[in-house]
Amino acid sequence: MSRPVDALFRPFTLNGLTLPNRIVMAPMTRWQSPEGVPGADVAAYYRRRAANDCGLIITEGTTVDHPVASYSVRVPQFHGEALPAWRRVVEEVHEAGGRIMPQLWHVGVSRHPSQQYPNKHLPSLSPSGLFRPDKPAVAPPASREEIRNVTDAFVSAAHAARELGFDGIAIHGAHGYLFDQFFWSSINRRDDEYGGDLIGRTRFAVETVRAIRREVGSDFPLILRISQWKEQDYTARLAHTPEELGALLTLLAGAGVDAFDCSQRRYWEPEFAGSSLNLAGWAKRLTGKPSMTVGSVGLAKALVTRGDQALGERAEVANIDALIERLEADEFDLVAVGRALIADPEWARKVRERRFDELRPYTAAALETLF
Ligand SMILES: Cc1cc2nc3c(=O)[nH]c(=O)nc-3n(C[C@H](O)[C@H](O)[C@H](O)COP(=O)(O)O)c2cc1C
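^ thats the input. predicted complex w/ flavin mononucleotide below
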């Protein structure tokens, strides 16, 4: 590491919320909330990262109040009995001087039959019942009424987040889950107003963001996560050109998104030929909104497999000079850190103090002790 790290430790204000620095804990599912209720261990887990200079924590995906929103009984819910438990998480993070937003989630058709999840007898909800473009449908297409029910569930969750004292909300619109299933033309085969062209495929997310805005007001920060890649297909693309990306993001920005969390597996990869800008770089340029990058920050190895298999991989600590160079150039505003922050809760503090030699690699063993 030769560069100064100051750019990472400049405050940033997002829709009235001042973050002490640019480091954000990326949302990471932990399967540690039996019956969907986060316990004291979950609060302690986030508190440790907050106490060690992480500027903003985005929680693991937490599911909205809809019967088929979740794919595991161990994924935390964001309704009912789980809400008082979340209040404790918020309080602990705030006591430690941190900021925190829940990642609100509906998995759509990504409910794997091998998992235990609530309401397994009910069909999954999705645009056309397809999990992958090359496989037969596994559920009926969502009706308009069901789509509106999900929007209402996100609105209730956003309302609860504000009531509980969260600093904003993050919405999972990426990785092949529900909203992304609507964006993705290969599995959204609808011929009503929620399918077809880009405007149709974006309508569900746009209506949901607008409805949330009406509920929580204009001054509550809202971050939307998007990605080209899908858990179903790492090579999938929503936008082949900057124009296509701009069309999608402009609709969402107009609905009330404050910042785009642009999920890549390797932050240094250019999004389109002819420019070194990454996805977050393009999102910022095309919308004028703040953006956040993510993907193998501080790690010498990218995520190559999904789910549990990704947990088992070892990744050595990597230099972040190139990241800082991009941040200094204002390509993006925030930097989300995932696995490096699982492996080392003190990642941000050690970087701030330039104790690079003390950073821990990401290993299966580190995970077992730190989860
Ligand atoms: C164990 C694990 C769980 C994850 N769960 C989520 C999730 O709930 N929501 C989400 O948007 N991304 C999730 N991700 C993706 C991360 O937020 C992040 O984008 C990804 O790990 C790349 O960042 P990294 O290379 O710094 O780990 C998960 C990743 C891992 C490793």
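Residues 315 and 362 are 5 Å apart (CA to CA).
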